[in-house]
């Protein structure tokens, strides 16, 4: 077996993660010196997440019974650069003081997202968490905790599992916690779907295409209108084992190989593979070409598009892909003028760090559209700017080779 690197066109579409526990209990206060006051629970998650239908259920650890339910409504506001918090306030002694007690966060489908406790663990006997054993957060308050303090998560990340609970400190209800930084993986070019052009030939007119996506793969789909003599056969992990949570649809049959038009992830959210080997095959003898769209779990998804031409039945795996650009290039935006969205295209003759940004006519930067290390090739960035005032703007490509800029116009 050997490898061949295809000089194929690769496009990354950047449009505004879903992993493990994206909406979670972020801060808690239930006990303090003297009469309990300011008791509250804070819920955190991606800004704009609609919590209508969600609820927070308080549990008595002594008997495992639920004793209070608060219903949530509306979207999470943007408080922390794309993330936000919602605060649920309780009356004096509204939240029990533990040894142990707990609380369950329940989504709009009635699924318990979290069942946390403080000062020990217990098993719920009723309510949405019935039969579940709580997870102790590992820190607690007491009758000597200063008024105005709380228990908070700290760390850097985007989901509950990225953070850790801290000992009581001055509360930050309604704002980012002390020592907490929200980082959206979907804004990091390094986590987007990526293919370096490698194809590993197999026997029988088949081959493996290795790819990575830091946020996880959601779907692989052929564009049949621009593809010929190709089928997706299987999704495997880096070791070559089948990933059964990727289900095929749109059957494609042939005398040599049979497969599917697309694969979609059907497993539990947060369990998507971040490194795969996509098995492709030629249904019949002869050359193949395909237009493949690979999407990650971001909302909306970022999509990697590749269009190699090859002969999977030729032992040499011949290719007819377009050559790499021989210079840096920034193309005109299209459409231009535009109303809701426009597309920027740039070319790189080598792998290089890139920043593509938009500025107003006064030279003020209004957006960073793409930033990171990009492979050699031609890249497209679809940019939505519905909130941008109408007028003339400049988009600028910064690379190690220099700066290139063009103008475009937004029509409100």
Task: Write up what this structure looks like.
The protein has strands at about 5, 10-15, 25-30, 40-45, 55-60, 65-70, 85-90, 100-105, 110-120, 135, 150-155, 165-170, 180, 200, 205-210, 215-220, 230-235, 245-250, 260-265, 275-280, 290, 290-295, 305, 310, 330, 340-350, 350-360, 365-375, 375-385, 390-400, 400-410. It is mainly beta and about 400 residues long. The protein has three domains: about 5-15 and about 190-310, Sandwich (Immunoglobulin-like), CATH 2.60.40; about 25-185; about 330-410, Immunoglobulin-like (Sandwich). Helix content is about 0%, strand content about 45%. The strands form seven sheets. It has a six-stranded antiparallel sheet with strand order 2-23-22-16-19-18, with no helix packed on it. Residues about 1-20 and about 315-320 have low confidence and may be disordered. About 40% of the residues are buried. The protein contains no helices and 31 strands.
